[in-house]
Each structure stands twice: as C-alpha cells, then as structure tokens.
Design brief:
It catalyses: a 5,6-dihydrouridine in tRNA + NADP(+) = a uridine in tRNA + NADPH + H(+); a 5,6-dihydrouridine in tRNA + NAD(+) = a uridine in tRNA + NADH + H(+). InterPro entries: Aldolase_TIM, DUS-like_FMN-bd, DUS_fam, DusB-like, tRNA-dHydroUridine_Synthase_C, tRNA_hU_synthase_CS. This is tRNA-dihydrouridine synthase. Pfam families: Dus. By secondary structure, the protein is of the alpha/beta class. It is built from 13 helices and 7 strands. It folds into 2 domains: 161 residues, TIM Barrel (Alpha-Beta Barrel), CATH 3.20.20.70; 74 residues, Putative flavin oxidoreducatase, domain 2 (Non-ribosomal Peptide Synthetase Peptidyl Carrier Protein, Chain A). Strands 1-2-3-4-5-6-7 form a 7-stranded parallel beta sheet. Strand 2, helix 3 and strand 3 form a beta-alpha-beta unit. Helix 3 packs parallel to helix 5.
Length: 286
Amino acid sequence: MIASQAMIRGVSKSLLIGSPHESEHPLVVQIAGGDPEVMAEAARMNVDRGADVIDINMGCPVKKIVKGQAGAALMRNEPLVVRILSAVVAAVPVPVTLKIRLGWDKSNLNGARIAQIAEQEGVRMLTVHGRTRVQMYRGEADWQAIAEIKQQTQLPVVGNGDLQTPQQAKERWQATGVDGLMIGRASMGKPWLFKQVAHYLETGEELPAPSVAEQHALVKEHFERLLDFYGPVIGNRMARKHLAWYAKGLPGSAAYRNKVNQAETPEETLQLIEAYYGQRDNNQAA
C-alpha cells in the first residue's frame, strides 16, 4: 500500500515501494488516500511507472491511516467514495479495483452499498475483508457477510480474512461463491501457502511444507533480495520481522529472533541464518 500524498510529493520510500520489477507482471499497485485529485494523480504516476492495475484501499484499519481520513475511514463517507472512484477510474487506462471491509462497525454495515457504488463507477473487481474497522483483526472474519455482498453485485468478489489452510480456503470458496481468495497474514513466514492452496483447490491433494533445506534456501534468497532492493542498512532492518515469521514455532526461535534483532550488519544476520538453519539441516539429516 502506498500513501498517495507521499507518492506525488516524491517521498523516496513511497517511490521505492511502488517500483516495478521485470518479473512482477501483471503488477497491481495499491494506493491509499482521501483526496480524489491526489488519488487520481498517484494512480497516473503508478501507471506511468509500470502498474498494470490500480487497487484502492478503503479497508485499512490502522489508526494512522484512518486518522488521515483514508483506508476504512472512507466507508463512513459514501459521497467521497463516489468522488474518489470516479476520479481514479477516469485518470488511468488500466483496470481499477477496490478493497473494503464490511463497514465501520456492526451498526454501519454498508459494504454492499459500497460495492454497488464501485460497480456504478467502473471499478472492475472488489476484495472484501470479513470484519469491520472497529474489529480491526479481532474475532473471526464473517464469510457469510462476504457472501451476502457477493450476491448484491455483479463485480467479481475476492474474499479475505482468516484463510490459514488449504482446507479453509476450499470450504469458504465453495460456501460463499466468491470469485477469488486473498491470503494475507497467514502467508507471513509461509510464502509456500499460496502454492499449497492453489494445488489443493485444483486437485484436492495436500502439498507438504518445504523441507528444512528448502526453507533454508528460501530464507537466504529472501534476505538477499531485501538487501538488493532496500540496500544493506534498511534491508537488514526490514529482514528482522520476516526472519522472525519464518522461524515462528520452530525450536529455538525466540533466542534466534533476539539475536537477529540485535544484528547490525547483513554479515552478522547471514551468519545467524546459517547457524540456525544449518543446525536444523543437520538434525533432520541425522
């Protein structure tokens, strides 16, 4: 997600996040904001930089975003939703999609109404997270509510929320009639989950998780790509949360995480990765 205001001001971090890579096509860039003209300009900039689809975020519940009258805060202002969608759709020649929640709170469940507005304004696809903004990520995602929104729009609808296993994905896909599934937090530290879900939906067969050696290679590759993309200082810091997610639930992960968080250079971090996964490689081989 890129803040539109920061994008058009040329903030280096925002420009970097939206930088396309030759392997990333079709490239979807998600923008956030509350000013129709600024959103439209940010959309144009991203398309000029290589975006194939523009996604508008009206679902982010984070306080900083909501305080700026962006993200999920927009669901409380339907006239502004109309203006933003109209401006962005008119500004770019590529498809525009939208992500929302069920509503602001349980007393204001206007997700279906926002879906109808999106359809009228030329949005091409809708993603619905099955919670309200007030819920944040507490409780369980309401997939029945997602199904009801699906029934009230002609747009393709993607369901999102609490998809943690291939079995859950298939069950909710079949029960709701949604056109697609979006996996978020469950993939942190388990990027192979997407392949597992896709394979299960297609064949009904469960793919095993990667071996320790395969995870070791994947973690190293991810770390090296973070360094390439962000540079050694920021990349090393950015890697900390990812390395913690990869190791979550594994033996010795707490001590490993603490050491990684204190590593000041990429060389130190790489040594920790090699030591941690190398030991697990040896244990598995034995």
